[in-house]
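yo, MuDR family transposase is done. seq:
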Amino acid sequence: MHTCSNEHNVKFLTVKWLVNKYLGTFWADPSWSLQGIQARIRDDLYLEISPQKAWNVRSAALKIIAGKEGEQYAKLQCYATEIRKTNPGSTVIYDLRNGVFKRAYICLDACREGFLAGWRRIISLDGCFLKTRYGGQLLSAIAIDANDCIFPIAYAVVEGETSESWRWFLQLLGNDLVMENSHSWTFMSDRQKGLVPMVQALFPAAEHRFCVRHMYDNFSNAGHKGKTLKDQLWSAAMATYVAGHEKCMMELEGLSKAAFEWLKRKPPSEWTKSHFPTNSKCDMLLNNLCECFNKYILDARDKPIITMLEIIRTKLMRRFQVKRDEMMKYKGPICPKIQKKLDKWKDEAIKFNAVWNGAAQYQVTGVEGQFVVNIATSSCDCRRWDLTGIPCEHACASMRVNGLVPEEYVHDCYKVETYLKIYNHTINPISGQDMWDKGGLSQVIIPPELDPPKPGRPKKARKKSNVELEKNSNRSKLSKKGRKVVCSICHQEGHNKRWHTQPITTSEAATASTTVAVDTNRKKLAVTKKKTSFNESNGCLA
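structure:
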């Protein structure tokens, strides 16, 4: 009769064996947690593995799924050929230096043609870090569709955000979009390193806006802190007409002369709605388009290069299909997000009184002041209608006088018909790597140099801005800043009992024990009182 117990730690349970057994599970869930792996093995095999072995199993399985990082660079030429073959008209260009990979640019034909089918020529530019051993960054050009959602145009893998890499990316983008006359184009960015001079050099007549959130970070870092100054900056940025902007700037000058001078040095055409041209039909102040795209592809940014590019292409392929099918079921002349904005202005219109002049103009009076609306030119003194192409509250109040329908005066760029034209193009799937055409390979692409390893665990979370830190701070919790700490042994300030380093005398020990006894009695008394009050509330006494 055996009396020994079962052994739960078996050293012959190798990583290779576990990877082969659970590879299908990793395919279905690449983010399978270490605790989940340990629990699954415990349930299936009645065996225990350490967290380190679980981590090794997951790493080995993900390497098999994604492919070895260095080997994928040699397949880039085949990948580019496959994209061009399955998606005719697409631009796939890679840049080499003595056979070593430097950059790769992709603009799918469906993305380019979909963007050109829309009306709004506004492009958001940004870059995000790639979290592989080879490092690098992903530059992206993101537009906005008829429903005010992101619409990716092109993206590129580069060595970093430098003047040279931005010039290379913008030149290819300009060629794809035929930007011969940049006067009607608008760019939005975060003042990235090397980007601003390249936009000025390549597209000198284009409008270039800068994200107000990032400008506020610089404003705050310059020493202009506080909610009052922050709110005043945003009021100046949100003002849609010049007089309103100047009023906000005068109020800022009264609050802080230094803050006013700092902001005065920034050209207003770069950051305030009151000075934006009206051709783009977009009053956007933030670079949210690229930030949304960076989050959209977050799960791809730590993968080998071809795996990452394929994840992005597959996401876009499905996105086009889903967006198109959803909008085909929608009943209405303008897109749902735009209809929601218009409904808001229609509700606000009740607060205004409009007087018609018998032609196309109306005089609209309300708490905010008096404005002139011209129905024929789709304009209002407040410039909201001019900037966005959506009738503002003053325009809606004017239309109510003669029973006009505001939906009929929304710009064509927001129509469902335009939306379907944008997403009418399809991104075609491609075959697996083993079926790619390997003939005609002109050269072998060598991976770039590895980034030097950094100490500690690699950081995946990005640095948060001042605005995000303010939002995430727990305001209900009192800060310990400025609080005096007193030692209960020596009664000196600057440390507590735990950090008392001097030898404890007999009197100090007695004082400390008395303090502990008093504290203990107080706690017991408090507990007794709670129990008594609880019993009394239930009609009985302890």
